[in-house]
Every structure is written in structure tokens, then in C-alpha cells.
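Thread: Modeling a multi-component assembly for a lab meeting

Hi all, long-time lurker, first post. My supervisor asked me to bring a structural picture of a complex we are working on to next week's group meeting, and I have zero experience with this. I have the sequence lines for every component (459 residues in total). Could someone generate the structure of the whole assembly? Inputs are pasted exactly as I received them:
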Amino acid sequence: MITVTKVNKWFGKLHVLKDVSFNVAKGEVIVICGVSGSGKSTLIRCINGLEKIQGGTITVDSMNVHDPKTDINLVRKEVGMVFQSFNLFPHMTALENLTLGPREVRKMPKSQADQIGLELLARVGLADKAHSYPASLSGGQQQRVAIARALAMQPKVMLFDEPTSALDPEMIKEVLDVMIQLADDGMTMLVVTHEMGFARKVAHRIIFIDGGTIVEEAPPDAFFTEPTQERTKRFLEQILPV
Amino acid sequence: MEVVLRVTPHLIQGIYLTLYLSIAGMVLSLLVGFIGGMIRSARVPLLSALWGVHVAFVRGTPFLLLIFIIYYVLPAFGLRLGAQSSGVLGLVLHEGAYMTEIVKGGIDAVDRGQDEAAKALGLTYMQKMRHVILPQAIRLILPPLAGQFVLLVKATSVVSLIGITEVTRVGQQLTQRGEHTFVTFGMVALFYFLICYPLVRFSDQMERKFSKWLETA
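Re: Modeling a multi-component assembly
Sure thing. I ran the full set together rather than chain by chain. Output:
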């Protein structure tokens, strides 16, 4: 579904991604972890073209994302994204946030978009908030609306960029529960997160990035119990409860 | 009272012209301001830089000079415009430059995450501007824009200097013919006030209307 081949990216002189390569199969859930500044967020932002790359190739559903001949909006139609800071449209109700993409990009009639939107809001447990503005929702509720908004486009892949990092601890679970449900339904997911409980539970593979390179790539069991790299061990010691 | 009755028909002639200049100036400079603001904000190569030079020129020179350049200098380059067209063009270039900066400022003030969220949904640039960015920018843009409209209405009096008999010019002519100066200019001032003050009030109301979604917090 996604192939990342020898991707290189610089911010000015800073080499943030160095020869990064990996594949994601349909229905796979990949967790990407690493310390701040390791390049993990930048990496997933390259997958829907929010960041440009200076070397290598990324394909999503056989579309070459960074080829100038590719219509990037065709890629983005198929790739949902959830941001750390939610980024809901504050001047629209929850339902309007959900229906904007389907109506404008997929040219869906309003009645159909509304129906799908209401179903998705119910799925994330917010059926009663359809007509609320984001400012009147809690952080956890906003993030669930944001997930529903991305799902409303019926994407083939979902990208999550630290979806719980801006949330109060008591709201993290409600968002993770929605993500777990989504994984169980077979969605292809690429998740940048520090939530190792989530990684252990739903990830098929965990990719550990440090200094812009993939240091370790393994299924959760192997990743947590027998990491092969020193750098991974030190990282796990820092983040896992003793 | 006699003076009022006597000068009113003359002033109305000038008022028509002032309103024409104002409305044409507003509509066209608004168009220029939005297109220019989007070009500047998106940093479109070349166009953005060129318009930036124009904005710097307008900010750094008097409006009257721009009018003189259009009316007296452009004909030397083969572009001969009538007085009214020169006046409208001057107003549009001048006010459009300021409006460009107002629109650019409003667009740039919208959180970057909004831009990214709109892009991530696959919206085109125009869809993103129309549905996501401008509705949020507009409440930042409208109050200073209305202020700029007020300046535009008042700036129409400057174009009298290339021989356009708008309302200020008419007032001047009337007093030169011996009409009562206080009453005549008082009526001219009242006219401007009646146009400009509602604009200011309108801007306040719009600001409140567009802030609605913020107040739900």
C-alpha cells in the first residue's frame, strides 16, 4: 500500500531523513516511535506530501507522491491524516468538519455526506455533538471528530501524527479506543506515537527512528523484549515504566 | 436655509461623482486586494515580488503624486486616460496596495494547522481558501478593510486636483462664486460623515457576527 524507498530530506542544512526505506502492506498497523527531533513526524508528513523530499521515492496505492506529474490531491483523497493539535475548522460544526471533504473533493451530495458524517460521529461516540462547534468540545472529543473527519473521505490509509500528545491524560484512552477499533476493522495505519501500550496491543510492526534513520524495525513482541540495537534498548529504558 | 436650498442641487451633482468614484474604487480595489493578498501570501514567484515593489511605492509616496503620474506621466508612454479613469485607477492602485497587505495579514494570521488540515483532505487551493482560510481570515480582514474604505471615500476628494468635479470640488467652486463657506463646506462634511460613519458601524457589526464561533468557547 505504501512504499518508502531511500527517502532523504533536508531542512536547510539539517539532514532530517537519511535513506529511509520501509513498506506498509494493506491492513497493516505500523507504529513509528523515536525521541523528539528524530524525524518521525516529518516522515509521515512526507507520505501525503505536506513535506517535500529531496531524494528517494514514496508511493501510495501505486501513486508516486513526489512526482511533479502526480496530482497530489488524488493522493490526499486516499490518505487521511490526524494531527497532534486536531486542526478542526473552528468556524464549522463537527458535522460540517466531516462533510467538507466528501462534498468538495468527492463531490458527494449533501444528504449523503451528512448521512456518512452522522454515522461516523456515532462510531466515535459523538452522535450528540454533530452540531457543536469545536471550541465547545473537549480535547479528546475534538480529536475523535478529527479522526472521523479523516475517515469521512473513506481513505485507504490513515496517518496519525502524535494524536494523543496534546491531550490531558484522562482523554487519551477515548482516542486510543477509537484507533484500536479502527485497526480491528482492518484500516491501514501509520501512527507516530509515544503510547507504547497502544503499540504493543495493535501494531503489526514498530519502527524506531533516531537521527533520521531507521534503527530498528520489528514486531511488538520482538521490539519490546529483544531489541537488537543498543540505541533501541536505551530508548525503551527511558520510556517504559520500570 | 436659502443657502442650503441653493447649493444642494449643485452638491448633488458632485455627490454622484464622489459615489461613483467611491463605489468603483471599493469594488475594484477589493478585488485587487484579495487577489494581491492571496498572491503575496502564497508567495507566487515574480508576481509577489512585483506587487511588493508596488506596495512599497504606494506606502512611501503621497497619493496625489500617484494620481499625477497616472494623469500626466503615463500619456508620455502612450497611455492616455481621462480624468475619471485616472482617478479610479489611482484609487484602485493606492487602496488596493493597502488592502493587499490587510488581506495578506489576515490570511497569514490563520493557524498553519488549518492550511495543513485542508490540504490533507485533498482540497484544492481555491477550495481551501474559500471554505477554510478566508472565512477565518475575514474577521481579521473586515474591520481594517472597512477602515480602508473610509479612507478611500475621503481620498476621492484628492482627485479633484486633476479636474474631477466631485463633491469637495463643487463645494470649492460654490464658495468661490460667493456662497456661504460655513454652510457649504458644512454640508460637504456632513455628506462624507453620513457615508463613512455607517461603514465604521457596519465593520463593528461584521466583526461581532464573524466572532460568533469563538464565543461558543
